[in-house]
Amino acid sequence: MDRIPFNKPFIVGKELHYVSRAVLDGQLAGNGAFTRRCEQWLEERTGAPRVLLTHSCTAALEMAALLFDVREGDEVIVPSFTFVSTANAFALRGARLRFVDVREDTLNVDEEQLAELAGPDTKVIVPVHYAGVGCEMQRIREIATRCGAWIVEDAAQAVDATYRGRQLGTFGELGCFSFHETKNFICGEGGALIVNDERLIERAEILREKGTDRARFSRGEVDKYSWVDLGSSYVPSELNAAFLYAQLEEAEAITHRRNAIFARYRVSLAPLEEAGLLRLPALPEGTRGNGHMFYVIASSAIERNRILHALDKMGIHAVFHYVPLHSSPMGRRLGYRPEDLPVTEDLAARVLRLPCYYELGEDDQDRVIEALFDVVEG
After folding, report:
1. Among the three residues 249, 276, 304, which one is the final residue of a domain in this structure?
2. Predicted structure pTM score
């Protein structure tokens, strides 16, 4: 019996045709026709005044830290339950990181604890939309306004998900998307910076182009370009953009399929939740997910590890998720202890993610569901 992977990259439309087109058009280094098409598609989808394609979500986060001129000692609040890039982007600029705990229900930022932490010294708040489910952005905006902080949404997992009818990634001054091969829309490695504050557009274009005003040159606004600010090489290859554009063209079908997989898991596994054996993902009122992942929360860390091991022996690749940043070796060097964020520490030890990808067929999904019943009830 074939092994069911946790994730599987996929082709849904004209990916290979567009990659060939990019080669034949003679521009592979980026900022070509496919880059512009991706950016325009994302601008129309999100309503943002400017979207800049990047080579990763990490790059978009690093650009955000540069745009907000984060310096040594500036306070930046991030959740501990996130990928390391969320913290690294600001730590690289010398920021003083303050980790915030997560909510029991969504594993998103605990906005009430955030309200207690944030103050006049807070420069940036970075909410992370875990599993494509929106944080309480209305409350977070109130907190940021009160203390004069910027908001950078880490929406790596949340492309095409909404909060109160509005696309995630558009509530902060900046939003960051990922198109890594594990995400809903993929190009191997890729990302985007969503610029919602028009005051930041010109400098964002400069930072992305190695600190030059090349974007203005490309539009014919200056007769030559030169070094005008800090920056780095954040533009993705045109090959990646070509692959991604084919995926964006099929966005409706991809999101619909992933939400269908999510819904099928949710309905099928409900008896395990009702019996108190597992906890399923929460979808608070006002949020529309994108089916990015399906996770379950076991009753204990020991039970989570037992389930993972048993599923692996049955040919099903399920995985744990983040090791909390505050209790990681680097987090300890920053002065944190595991007990500082008890909810994060507890949930991180109990969460496991099931196979969830565009081409997951119903037979394979049934196999995962049946195996989980066998393992948990047994």
Report:
1. 249
2. 0.96
